[in-house]
UniProtKB/TrEMBL annotation:
Name of protein: Piso0_005321 protein
Annotated keywords: Ion transport, Membrane, Transmembrane, Transmembrane helix, Transport
Gene from which the chain derives: Piso0_005321
Major place of residence: membrane
GO cellular component, one term: plasma membrane
Membership in a protein family: Belongs to the ZIP transporter (TC 2.A.5) family.
The UniProt record lists the keyword Transmembrane: yes
Organism: Pichia sorbitophila (strain ATCC MYA-4447 / BCRC 22081 / CBS 7064 / NBRC 10061 / NRRL Y-12695) (Hybrid yeast)
Length: 375
């Protein structure tokens, strides 16, 4: 029995207890806290500021590019910057045991994806029940409201189409004609539909209420997955050795692009007046997470063992969980929702706009995947 215990301890001791910190470039390491802070703040806060204040409002196409570029960044982050490092951490030879027998990084990401899907099913059921209590049974809502108005993808009966008045038809025709000329309002049309009575003077309907709550859930899930990842990014940068210079530059761009993806989603959500501070809190949380983690890493730079058994398992598990969250959010919410179930690409010129958005997603994903060459 004693021999078995000793063998187990010996196997655990195979993992390196130290780190690669070499004590060089101390000034640059200190500066990284503030540079990463500024990059993260710009990425996450600028879209919100631009959507709120007219004096810095950007043209609609800037938001269009930022929105879809950010989607590509988030998806590439999930596969290249999270799933691969998680697999690398959980397949180290020194771990042994079950880690040699099963690809736990992919298994944890898969389990996270299904748990997240189940939580979303339960959440939307709760939202549906809540909205039903608020509006009664008389109104019918969408079965899965974050996909948008069901009229977009469900063909209406002919009789229903004849119920439109002449004025409504003329208004719809005018809006359709203007959508290709001025896409800025159309880009945020789903957000404007969710404004409550305090903001635009009109009550929020059942469908709009469901869509707003769905957007709220999606933003919180995205924030949760990104912040998980940001903690380990900061620790890795602070305790790195010879590769510090390369990591420094890559992580600055990484944080700015990832913040841009998160910030545009937060800005596109129509926050009611009683939650006007929520987008700022979410953006600030992302902004501060990595710089704080860098500061903690610098504080424990000589004692933090990123190569130890405990650190490898912890880092690998959290990266795999974050990967599962961002894969689900990126593919389902950001790609399927925005491309397949959105009215943004309907009407004349819609297909050309959709191809443009697709190419922007590819550029964002490609650039973020390229950064994976160094970090």
């Amino acid at each position: 029995m004693e021999n078995i215990v000793m063998e187990a301890l010996a196997k655990r001791d195979k993992c390196e207890a130290g780190n690669e910190y070499d004590g060089k470039l101390w000034g640059a390491r200190i500066s990284s806290v503030f540079v990463v802070l500024v990059a993260s703040a710009f990425g996450s806060l600028f879209p919100i500021l631009s959507s709120r204040y007219s004096f810095i409002r950007m043209p609609w196409w800037c938001f269009f590019i930022a929105k879809y570029f950010g989607s590509g960044v988030i998806i590439a982050t999930a596969f290249i910057h999270l799933l691969e490092p998680a697999n690398d951490s959980l397949t180290k030879d020194c771990l042994g045991g079950t880690f040699d027998e099963y690809p736990w990084a992919y298994g944890i990401a898969l389990m996270t994806l299904f748990v997240l899907f189940f939580c979303e099913l339960v959440s939307y059921h709760y939202v549906d029940q809540k909205v039903t209590r608020e509006f009664g049974e008389g109104e019918t809502g969408n079965s899965h409201s974050h996909f948008g108005d069901e009229n977009i993808y469900v063909k209406k009966d002919v009789d229903d189409q004849h119920d439109l008045s002449k004025d409504e038809e003329e208004t719809d025709h005018k809006c359709g004609a203007e959508s290709t000329q001025m896409a800025y309002p159309d880009h945020f049309s789903h957000a404007n539909d969710h404004q409550d009575q305090e903001l635009v003077g009109t009550p929020m309907g059942r469908d709009d209420r469901e869509q707003y709550l769905g957007q709220l859930l999606n933003v919180f899930v995205l924030e949760f997955g990104i912040i998980f990842h940001s903690v380990f990014v900061g620790l890795t940068l602070a305790t790195s050795g010879e590769e510090f210079k390369t990591l420094y530059v890559v992580i600055v761009f990484h944080q700015m692009f990832e913040g841009l993806g998160l910030g545009t989603r937060i800005a596109a959500t129509a926050w009611p007046k009683n939650r006007r501070w929520t987008p700022w809190v979410l953006a600030l949380a992302y902004t501060l997470t990595t710089p704080i983690a860098i500061g903690i890493g610098l504080g424990v730079r000589t004692s933090y063992p990123p190569g130890s058994r405990r650190a490898l398992i912890t880092n690998g598990c959290f990266d795999a969980i974050s990967a599962g969250i961002l894969i689900y959010t990126g593919l389902v919410e950001l790609m399927a929702h925005e491309f397949l179930f959105s009215s943004e690409f309907k009407g004349p010129g819609g297909f050309k706009l959709m191809i443009t958005a697709y190419l922007i997603v590819c550029v964002g994903a490609g650039l973020m995947a390229l950064l994976g060459r160094w970090a």
